[in-house]
Amino acid sequence: REPTPAEKGDPGEPGTPGRDGLDASEDQIAKAVTDYMAANPPAPGKDGEPGRDGKDAEVDYDILASEVAKHIPTPENGKDADPEVVAFMVAEAVAKAVSALPVAKDGVGLAGALIDRTGNLIVTMTDGTTRELGLVVGKDGEPGLPGANGSPGKDGFSLEDFDAEVTDGGRTMILSFVAGDTKHTSEHQLDTILDRGVFKVGSTYQSGDAVTWDGSLWIAQAKTKSKPGENAEWRLAAKRGQNGKDVNESALKVQIEEHVRAAEERLAARIEAGFKRRDG
Question: Of 51, 56, 208, 221, which has fewest CB within 10 angstroms of its CB?
Answer without folding.
Answer: 51
